[in-house]
Write a structure and sequence with these properties.
Blueprint (H helix, E strand, L loop, with lengths): L1 H25 L8 H10 L5 H7 L5 H7 L5 H7 L7 H9 L5 H9 L1 H4 L2 H9 L5 H7 L5 H11 L3 H11 L4
Length: 172
């Protein structure tokens, strides 16, 4: 019975988010560029705890994922990556997040459909939260123009910049 009640709470919350989103769309003067910030405010004021968000993330619908991808809890982002309906754009937002965790980065690298996307690889290598061993694993998969940008200073660490220079000069 307890799991039924938890499911009901999550369903009720999802319904509330949809209702909140519909209400925001109908409000005059709210344009789409303001919606994510307004929706985030709705999410934080909803009273959901991080564990509740983590439970909701793997099954969240599109509107809820828009809110969760902006969450500051790395565990919520990791749980969101386990959602089978996640789009490449949403994975890209996670890859660019300042709250990216080791586990999230590793999951993105291990998922072929995500790792094959150049924008996601570039976002990961430019994210200072990406661990150096992962960045060094991504570097050989990038085109020369991206490697040049890293060598010229877009790298987040000296070791990554040196590896980019070495690759450009035929050493790797």
């Amino acid at each position: 019975m307890e799991s039924f009640l938890n499911g009901t709470y999550a369903l009720g919350f999802t319904f509330s988010l949809i209702h909140l989103t519909i209400s925001l769309v109908d409000v005059p003067g709210v344009n789409t560029s303001q919606m994510p910030a307004a929706l985030s405010a709705g999410m934080s004021s909803s009273g959901m705890t991080p564990p509740q968000k983590i439970l909701l993330a793997p099954q969240a619908d599109r509107l809820t994922r828009v809110l969760l991808v902006q969450d500051s809890d790395p565990q919520v982002l990791y749980a969101l990556l386990k959602n089978p309906r996640l789009t490449l754009d949403e994975v890209l937002r996670v890859a660019k997040s300042t709250y990216l965790s080791f586990q999230s980065c590793e999951l993105i690298l291990k998922t072929a459909a995500w790792f094959s996307n150049l924008d996601i690889r570039v976002a990961l290598i430019q994210n200072p939260k990406t661990p150096l061993p992962f960045a060094l694993r991504i570097l050989p998969t990038l085109p020369d123009n991206e490697v040049r940008a890293i060598a010229k200073g877009a790298a987040t660490s000296m070791a990554l910049k040196q590896a980019a220079l070495k690759r450009l000069h035929g050493g790797g």
